[in-house]
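We read letters as residues; the integers encode the fold. Take this protein.
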Amino acid sequence: MSNEALILDGESLTLKQLQAWEADPGPVKLADQAREKMQQSVDAVQKVIDEERTSYGINTGFGALARKRISRDKVVQLQYNLVRSHSCGVGDTLSPALTRRLMLLKANALAVGCSGIRADVVDTLLDLLNADVLPLIPERGSVGASGDLAPLAHLALALIGEGEALHQGEVIEGRDVLAVVDREPVVLQAKEGLALLNGTQLSASLSIEGLFHLEALWQASVAAGALSVEGLAGSYSPFDARLHAVRRMPGQIRAAEALREWLTDSEIRENHRNCTRVQDPYALRCMPQVFGAARDTLDHAHRILECELNGVSDNPLIFEEEVISGGNFHAEPIAMISDFLAIAAAELGSISERRSDCLVRGVNPDLPLFLTEEAGVESGFMITHVTAAALASENKTLAHPASVDSISTSAGQEDHVSMAPWAGLKLTRLCDNLARILAIELLTASRAVELQSPLKTTMELQKLLSWIRDIVPAHTGDRRMDGDIEELADALRGLPEV
């Protein structure tokens, strides 16, 4: 664990910082300037109450009950009722990693100082995070519109001493959650329950998870594609820089360059330089175009999600002494990004499955059908391809956009919702499937290259083969391969660079 503190000011957090902190967590603290801004917004909320001005979420009901004025003596009870009534999340709990991320993002959003919540509440949240006391947050129950209300309510429950948390492998409950960090339950003030519940931190955490995983899988796609080119004795000419320069697509140019870094000098290439095959299938020849489109999608998602890291997504918001009610809690920007990333993941898996098919069905006439030692007696890689096909088909269904599937809630007051959490949950499943599809391609392409021995592939791909063989032994006849697929899929986040 790092000793260097990550300071949250609500303005400067980057995805790179987030990823580094998640890899080596250190303490997280609020910046002094964040504390000052937060107190100013708390003072503004108190002034609304003192002057008996009507302001949504401070002294009114919520959603379709916004016209109900709440008396001054009940504004605190309103916040507790909000947290308790909204704790309706269901399904599996978020993983520890996603919970840590959600807690960090929530703290950073509140640090902006527009939410009317005391720094002490966020300090309590960060004390739990720093001690790895992780509230149990169900992953389902949010439509991603008035914030991720139900999941975030479970986070708030832990802060007021009524929730559950995981610590050192054990579930603790109620006030015991806060006792771990020597804290008393938070005593909510006006607006604070709403500030904790409103926000898109679950939606953002899931979308960021997809982005981080897909960044690694994009690199794995390029490596697998290059290895398949060698396994199929394919042509290098479709990766010529001049072709891509005139298309002018940045991602495509970058993808072709990445393929060229793997495909350098090769005995396999020299051996088939004068073969009669004029063109390769699209799954090889059009890799720069498909990989490039995915690359541009990742770059776009990176820009949007980096904005979201420091964005304020609760409601209403306080600007000096003015309280403004709007719709920053609507997670449509994140929903569309998750859907866009899901399409990219599905396409990377679809084209990988096609390359695995090419490898087992004799596109390279020098390779035996299904890459067997003894066809008929052995099935070789016949069914690994079937598994890839099953996963690719599942991903096509999962890639259907969630963001187009609005459903009206809260008696029609919240009549258009984003479904961003579902978009993010689907995306994480798509990425898991893609990792397995790519693992199957890497196993298949490795076998295809090794069957061409003593001809050698490029030095770069020889290193890749060595890395694969450190995880999975060479194929020497039929054996069960489920474990091979899972082990290699899990390892792809650590794929070596060229």
Remarks:
- The two ends are 29 Å apart (CA to CA).
